[in-house]
């Protein structure tokens, strides 16, 4: 039986054919360790790594040296949140954060930091009021997701960036669900953007980026070989090597390069319009199903729709849909704060998240399957 | 032929320099920095043109020249 994949908020699948080809050929084409030798193998890998850095820099309006390769978005967020010296003192996060933000914040809280949670309101104005209450000139840093991984709601990060700038406070944005799908770049005013390479940027798993505007230096959370300043015991002080200890994921970066090129040629606007239209089609097709709850409050969304069927555990619904040939994620989506905020604890939700390769036909077939489940039970 | 090796901070800056200079039509290749030019692992760019002028160009793009030496090859 064919299974239709609608779990792109977890990781994108399928990858473009160019990405798959890049993964296959990379271990052959880029066998040398970039930045670790002067021979042609090493330099060839380094060329590819720099090309990727440069392309990502263009997309996020950064300097290439301020684009750091990481393992995933969680890795980037940990490096940024724990690397800001002031976060040991205090930080402000939103009430819709993924555990990749709330857990590092909680870890800092246990070590003595003050953590304030700004409530995401029904409107952006309410949200901004909540942030305004907490952001002070001595706040260590502010962290907010660009878009919720549970509801898809796009957060007013441009306006939060303005509040932070007025107070001189570093602002870190979790771009896990926004990168490659909707507008997200340093021009919006944030100081750090953390993104996965394997979701909207369409690269392989094990890739991520930490992008900065260079206005706040980060302490390291790991140190080691960087291929530079090797005679010194102190960690390399300049970017990006300061934050890139150890051998880079060359195969993953090659896949990310292909993913970035795919997005560049397709256009982020086209990607968004396709996926957003599928969400509208999905909502339209399921909204009248008896017992369905849809969790979409707000004005702007990335292509994610969370729902529940009355009386049925979300994980059970997701399992039944899997049996019927549809891959969706049920549960808490590693975002306990977000589910607490929208009132879906402990059941969580079932999450529909299409990609640029998803079709209207498959979306309507999924809606039909949900209708059947609601009528016949799981 | 005589070249000038210009040591830069890292492979990232060497790549940045190479792309910048190649785009401007200058010859530029990358190699490991030889002992005597700087300590530790490092990268240099190999150029043919007036190296002081090249360093000025690089400085405009925040690429620091960490040292220079002439080589005959």
From TrEMBL, chain B:
It comes from the Bacteria. This is DUF3343 domain-containing protein. The lineage of its organism: Bacteria, Bacillati, Bacillota, Clostridia, Eubacteriales. Residues 4-68 form the Putative Se/S carrier protein-like domain.
């Amino acid at each position: 039986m064919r299974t239709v994949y609608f779990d792109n908020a977890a990781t994108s699948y399928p990858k473009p054919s160019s990405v798959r080809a890049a993964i296959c050929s990379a271990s052959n084409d880029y066998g040398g360790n970039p930045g670790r030798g002067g021979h042609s193998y090493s330099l060839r890998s380094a060329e590819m790594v720099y090309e990727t850095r440069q392309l990502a820099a263009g997309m996020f309006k950064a300097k290439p040296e301020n684009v750091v390769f990481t393992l995933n978005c969680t890795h980037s967020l940990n490096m940024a949140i724990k690397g800001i010296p002031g976060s040991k003192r205090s930080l402000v996060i939103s009430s819709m954060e993924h555990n990749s933000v709330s857990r590092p914040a909680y870890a800092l809280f246990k070590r003595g930091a003050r953590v304030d949670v700004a409530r995401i309101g029904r409107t952006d104005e309410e949200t901004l009021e909540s942030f305004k209450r907490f952001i002070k000139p001595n706040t260590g840093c502010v962290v907010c997701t660009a878009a919720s991984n549970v509801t898809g709601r796009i957060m007013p990060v441009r306006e939060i960036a303005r509040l932070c700038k007025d107070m001189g406070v570093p602002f870190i944005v979790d771009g896990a669900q926004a990168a490659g799908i909707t507008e997200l770049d340093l021009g919006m005013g944030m100081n750090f953007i953390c993104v996965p390479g394997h979701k909207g940027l369409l690269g392989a798993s094990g890739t991520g980026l930490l992008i900065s505007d260079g206005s706040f230096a980060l302490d390291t959370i790991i140190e080691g070989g960087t291929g530079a300043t090797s005679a010194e015991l102190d960690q390399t002080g300049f970017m990006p090597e300061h934050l890139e200890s150890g051998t880079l994921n060359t195969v993953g970066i090659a896949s990310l390069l292909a993913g970035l090129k795919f997005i560049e040629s397709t256009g982020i606007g086209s990607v968004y319009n396709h996926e957003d239209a599928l969400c509208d089609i999905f909502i339209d097709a399921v909204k009248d199903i008896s017992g369905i709850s849809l969790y979409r409050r707000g004005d702007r969304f990335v292509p994610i729709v969370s729902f529940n069927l009355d009386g049925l555990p979300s994980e059970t619904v997701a399992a039944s849909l899997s049996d019927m040939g549809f891959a969706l994620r049920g549960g808490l989506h590693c975002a306990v704060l977000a589910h607490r905020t929208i009132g879906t604890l402990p059941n969580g939700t079932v999450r529909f998240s299409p990609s640029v390769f998803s079709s209207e036909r498959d979306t309507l077939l999924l809606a039909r399957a949900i209708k059947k489940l609601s009528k016949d039970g799981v | 032929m005589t070249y000038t090796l210009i040591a830069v901070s890292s492979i990232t800056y060497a790549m940045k320099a190479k792309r910048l200079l190649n785009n401007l039509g200058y010859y530029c290749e990358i190699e490991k920095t030889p002992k005597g030019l700087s300590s530790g692992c490092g990268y240099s760019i190999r150029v043919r043109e007036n190296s002081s002028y090249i360093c000025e160009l690089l400085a405009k793009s925040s690429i620091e020249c960490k040292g220079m030496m002439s080589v005959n090859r």
